[in-house]
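User: What would this chain look like folded?
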Amino acid sequence: MERARSELGRLMTFKNPHGWAVPDNEASHRYYFLDQNTPSTEGEGDTPLLRLLALHVCPKTVANFLFHSRSTRGHIDAGDDAAAHVDALRSNHHGISPLHVATHRNSFFAYEIVRLLLAIDPSLVRRRMTASHSYPIHVTMANNLTIQQRVLDCLLEADPLLVYAEDICGDNPVSLLYKNVLRFRWAQLWVSQDTPPEFINGDKSWMTVISPDEYLDCSLAMIRAATAAVQERSAPNQNRNTTRWHQICSFPRCPPLLVKASALRWNDTTELLSRDRDGAVPLHRVAQAPAISYHAIPLHILAESSSTLQLVM
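Assistant: Here's the prediction, encoded as structure tokens.
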């Protein structure tokens, strides 16, 4: 037991040179993972759990840490639902929660750790970063080089309406995933030169990157979950008679790449002429929805690509 405690202490004090950095001002940067900042009475600095999660530890290590945390153990024994006040799960002074770290690091055990954290405190999924206003689902879609569908399913199950939430730059998780894949050559060629990848609907590339299939599956999963949640909340028993194209085109910040990928997979654009309950075709919906923001899109992509409205037309 003493050996395990000393090992945990070594991990938690290890200096990780790859921690996130955000500017406190224009002249300096402060690393807020595994750095010299320690928890204080003012709530600044990293919590031990944040430091632990940034090290790609296994789920059992996280579970043992939470079990031996006095505040968490008291929460479990008492059956108190106010898990947001558990000290072990609190955010740091930048609003970074344990779920932000778990989804950003995207380790091999991300799914198990995300499930564990949400089982203890489901409200973690609704915590926002102070500077960027990003929820964990924003972090997942914007940063990861690979997509774990199970992790996304956990976040959507916890609160699908967060797919509509926008960060400080006006991006929602769907538009962030689009800008994430623009770093890959297949996406750049498809957007700017209208050259679709040869491996769409086929085997995943050997490279550990987001494939076209994964991009399309994750985007559609987010839109369907969010749309179903809105309809269930506004009119549970009412059939809106919307097609899959209506769902895509009416979604805010719909990326043009999503339109191209959907058209290639479905290979049928006749639904673009169908009308919903209000008599609107998908073209009406895409014209009403807010357009994708230009933030973080390379200039050569902006100059050579068509807008979502042009593609639908």
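Strands lie at 21-23, 29-31. If you want, I can go into more detail on any region.
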